[in-house]
Amino acid sequence: MVRVGINGYGTIGRRVADAVRLQPDMELMGIVKRTPDYRAFLAMQKAIPIFAPDNPTKSKLESAGIKVEGLLDDLFARSDIIIDVSPEKGEENKAVYEKAGAKVIFQGGEEHSIGEASFVAQCNYDQAVGKRYVRVVSCNTTALARVLKTLDDSLGIEKAIATLVRRATDPDDSSKGPIDSVVPDPVELPSHHADDVKTILPNLNLTTMAVKVPTTHMHLHALAMKVKEPDAGKALSALLGAPRILLFESKKGYKATSSIIDYAREIGRPRGDLYEVGVWKESIKVEDDWLYLLLGVHQEAIVVPENIDCIRAMTGEADASRSIQMTNKTLGMMK
Ligand SMILES: NC(=O)c1ccc[n+]([C@@H]2O[C@H](COP(=O)([O-])OP(=O)(O)OC[C@H]3O[C@@H](n4cnc5c(N)ncnc54)[C@H](OP(=O)(O)O)[C@@H]3O)[C@@H](O)[C@H]2O)c1
């Protein structure tokens, strides 16, 4: 059993904690909490051991009625690997991890340079095997890497251009809304997203642009790819055969990100989470030597299976497909 500790219990941390608890080869040793809010009480209800970063925070949590198991150091001592799911505080936290000698997974809000590799399971699993520090990339980068790698392997991508329409914030975050605007993010083009994808697919010729819109459900990406073999049927087969990519048909009613989230709720996924990239089948089109498609990314969920596979890679499971299959099965993914 791999013993896992989680530092941060927000949007991603809570999901990764639940996913770890579903793995037959992992044990959740506890989470670190700072604020005595409803999330801490819910963790307590789930019997998840709660740790505090320091003694003053421990007293604050305890006086709010939260049972605290110990301090961060105690959690580190009990864990084989720590998942840093902080709001981009990984670099700051690294000094503590260094001292503890811990293996650590960081998240996409951090720079690539924080780890020895950046990670998307179906693209570069091998690069994380046995490593001490690895970064699971952002939700947008994970989706782009899964789809672009699949299509590059199948059709050969000469040039790709992606426009990212990003959700303004997560559903539980009221601090950034309401807004009534479409925000170029950034105005100065291109956006940084292409550089991040190149941490996974270094040879891909990709340019990205991004805007933020007033929705909380999902991101939507519009992709244009100049390909060596412009064959929409072959692109569809490749996407159908790839793990963690689902095809949604507009003619069946999947007309918007909201209906894709509704699908995830209807099939009984926890929190209505969609771990897969959702590609609209009818959007896959070829014109001249360009291939086009639209995809949706559930930002809260897509990196959860990546964190689980990354734990396995870093703690000794060298077989990518064995890990991906086990993660998919435990999280209820059909492919
Ligand atoms: N949200 C997304 O859509 C998304 C998608 C993919 C990747 N990511 C990446 O995942 C990481 C976490 O994002 P998130 O959205 O889960 O953040 P979040 O919801 O804001 O949660 C952050 C958590 O970190 C805790 N925290 C605060 N300061 C900390 C510190 N110094 N060290 C450790 N933990 C600390 C907070 O604790 P308290 O609640 O106890 O105060 C909170 O539980 C970021 O790198 C982000 O870029 C986010």
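^ NAP complex. The mean pLDDT is 97. Residues 7-13, 33-35, 85-89, 93, 107-110, 138-139, 170, 299-300, 303 surround NAP (CB under 6 Å).
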